[in-house]
Design goal:
single chain; alpha+beta; Transferase Creatine Kinase, Chain A, domain 1; two-stranded antiparallel sheet
């Protein structure tokens, strides 16, 4: 009996619940227990759309409004063989998320955004608060244009700061549908670029424990190394949500997945998780300018090596950097800090005020978690339509203002007029 992908399951995966195992083999995720029963493969895709009346995500909003789109597009395939069904399976299988409105679809390759544009474009526009089909996305990673404003002059409020984004490599299918050997070729190419990094970015690559794809570490990293990285919040784990499993991102787990980090452990690249690459630059304190500079250096060096090997990042003038989920198109960038603001975050208008400033707040454990002791992860809200420099500057100025308000509240001052003024200024 096969004990490793693509014909079997790895020993690690066999210890997981059966509903997760079903999404970690070679086949698409079909699990009646989780109501994941939509077939996206070309030869099994249903002739009619399932009943979507109880669904609530951006994809099903579009399909309920115009159900004929499914029939018009369901028999089309990209040049690499991706079907509409493979893109929309996760949104059909998952009716909705209790805390956030999800996109409900993923891209299987770069061409999906063009071939299935009649579905992708309205989802993209809805997710990004209005984005026209002829809009052009600006890219600007010139760190000299970053604001010099000090976010936390006292060093009392900001615990850590980070910047993260994703990148995809042109010519390869994206994680939802990429095949076993193709994923291995992609890992080898990306790791070649990562191992070329020098200076403060020099580091090593660690495949997930149990992965057999990387010859220098034939069984992946040790369990101890995995535990160390996960405990510090720097490593992803096996897919444990039906959103991910239905998308196809769990297939052949853990083969060809891993993490690169530099010697100082302040620059990380996740390989072949939800995106082909997820790049993170982070450190304690509020030096976001240094963090972005490191991030920019790393991405440009990886791109240089790709070009030397006749490859490049996926990018379009319309959508910016191409990534798996439409929510991350454009810059894919989230610049943020973990900041302790118990007084300001206790206000009833906390999150609405952030929204008006172009910011968002997540709890200490991620997108739909709660705060711990008034500590929040504050970051830019937008991804598409504004450049990297613009989004980082929105974050810098906004975070600095929030800390000034926190200091005022500590002294018992009323900040209502200032908050209203800042919101009006942002709207203008």
């Amino acid at each position: 009996m096969a004990t490793y992908p693509p014909t079997g399951l790895s020993e690690n995966v066999k210890t997981l619940p059966e509903w997760i195992q079903k999404g970690c083999g070679n086949d698409e995720y079909i699990c009646e227990e989780k109501n994941a029963t939509f077939y996206g493969a070309a030869d099994k895709m249903p002739a009619e759309l399932p009943d979507l009346k109880d669904h609530s995500n951006f994809l099903t909003d579009v399909l309920k409004k115009n159900p004929e789109l499914y029939k018009q597009l369901k028999d089309k395939k990209t040049k690499l063989g991706v079907t509409l069904g493979q893109c929309i399976k996760t949104g059909i299988d998952n009716k909705g998320h209790p805390m956030i409105k999800t996109c409900g679809l993923v891209a299987g390759d770069e061409e999906c955004f063009e071939l299935f544009a009649d579905i992708f474009e309205p989802v993209i526009s809805a997710r990004h608060n209005g984005y026209a089909r002829d809009a052009v996305h600006p890219t600007d990673l010139d760190v000299s244009k970053l604001s010099d404003t000090k976010i936390d002059p006292t060093g009392k409020y900001v615990l850590t700061s980070r910047c993260r984004t994703g990148r995809s490599v042109r010519g390869f299918k994206l994680p939802p549908v990429i095949e076993f050997e193709e994923r291995r070729k992609l890992e080898a190419l990306v790791v070649k670029g990562l191992l070329s990094l020098e200076g403060e970015l020099k580091g090593d690559y660690y495949p997930l424990h149990g992965s057999k794809s990387y010859a220098p570490k034939p069984t992946g990293m040790s369990l101890e190394k995995e535990e160390e990285l996960r405990k510090a919040g720097n490593l992803f784990q096996e897919p444990d949500s039906t959103l991910l499993l239905s998308s196809g991102c769990g297939r052949h787990w853990p083969d060809s997945r891993g993490i690169f980090h530099n010697e100082a452990s302040n620059f990380f690249v996740w390989v072949n998780e939800e995106d082909q690459m997820r790049i993170v630059s982070m450190e304690k304190g509020d030096d976001i300018k240094g963090i972005i500079t490191r991030f920019s250096l790393g991405t440009s060096q990886i791109q240089k090596v790709l070009k030397e090997n006749d490859a490049d990042f996926m990018r379009s003038d319309h959508l910016g950097w191409i990534l798996t989920c439409p929510s991350n198109l454009g810059t894919g960038l989230r610049a943020g800090c973990m900041v302790k603001i118990p007084h300001f975050s206790a206000r009833a208008d906390f999150k609405s005020c952030l929204g008006k400033m172009g910011l968002q707040a997540r709890g200490t454990a991620g997108v739909d978690s709660a705060s711990t002791g008034g500590t929040w992860d504050i970051s830019n809200a937008d991804r598409l339509g504004k450049s990297e420099v613009d989004l980082v500057n929105i974050f810098i100025e906004g975070a600095a203002q929030i800390i000034r308000w926190e200091q005022a509240l500590e002294k018992g001052e009323n900040i209502d007029a200032e908050v209203e003024k800042a919101s009006m200024k942002t709207k203008a």
